[in-house]
Amino acid sequence: MAINKSVKLNLLENSQSFLVEAVDKAIGAEDEVRHWQFAILNLVQSLELSLKLILKNIHHLFIYENIDNPKNTVSVTKTIERLSNPKIGNISFTENEKKGMKSAIKLRNQITHSEFELSVDHAQAQFFKVFSLIATVQRRHFDIQVEDILSVEAIESLVVIEKSKKILISNALQRVEDEGIEDHLLWTCPNCLSDTFVVHDEIDTCYVCTYTESVKQCPHCQELCFEEELESIHNSLDIDYCEGQAIIYNSYGYDDLMACSECATRIAQEIEERRAHEEMDEQEYYHWLSEAYK
Question: Where exactly does CATH 1.20.120 map onto the chain?
Fold first, then answer.
């Protein structure tokens, strides 16, 4: 019997084959943790191909970076941008969907382009978020159900994995209730993505996966945020470099150089406006001075 040495898949078939492989790796990760990295890689690839197919169905040229020179297809990030564009895809992704896609793509890039550390809790959470999104895309846009792609055994295995996570969440929420912790003191855990990260009384711990991270107060708005989310604003200041040292000669009144992302953006804009205003005043001054000496 002749052996077929080539494989030809269209975008839909290719996306589904990556989904099958991703699920297989996720199930296998119960015995071998390292399978999670391949489960994530395959799953994000399945999502990317699914989204590109939606774009292609709108117009076949939209999947290319340059529609005038259709050689390279767009990245998954650009695909999402085009699908969200009211003049192209006009698809309204929810904030949770956007965050899920963004974090999964970021994780995929870390796995493929640099050193990385991947916890089982984080991998599981990312997997089921993206898996749910792919299932929605396949159903809404291609009229295909998950059971049309995956075997009954595979689906049952996924249900078992997800149920174990739900039990942990249920136990964590019961602990939250027992300790009288209010809802506004529960954050989304950066590790397992459950809304069970407690910032009450400096506990700073997730009650599901036990992940801990320092929580700090933004010195500018006094709001709490994860310490790693604080950004330096020094690039917005007026700085000179002397013998390898950075010397700030105008801080514009900002003594605290760390800020939350919202404050960092606001401060950068305020400094830019003040800088432009000062430059305008300086130009007017020198113009007046030159006129006075004529």
Answer: 11-150
DSSP per-residue string spanning the chain: -PPP------HHHHHHHHHHHHHHHHHHTTT-TTHHHHHHHHHHHHHHHHHHHHHHHH-GGGGBS-TTS--SBPPHHHHHHHHH-TTTT-----HHHHHHHHHHHHHHHHHHHS-----HHHHHHHHHHHHHHHHHHHHHHH---GGGTS-HHHHHHHHHHHHHHHHHHHHHHHHHHHTT--GGGEE--TTT--S-EE-GGG--EETTT--B--EEE-TTT--EEEGGG-EE-GGGSEEEEETTEEEEEE-TT----EE-HHHHHHHHHHHHHHHHHHHHHHHHHHHHHHHHT-
- The fold for domain 11-150 equals Four Helix Bundle (Hemerythrin (Met), subunit A) (1.20.120)
**Cβ proximity of 197 and 189 under 8 Å:** yes
pLDDT in tens, 21-45: 999 999 988 767 789 999 999 999 9
Query: In the block, which residue shows the tokens 């506004």?
Result: 184
The CA-to-CA distance between both ends of the chain, in Å, stands at 99
Q: pLDDT tens digit string along 190-216?
A: 888 889 999 988 899 999 888 899 999
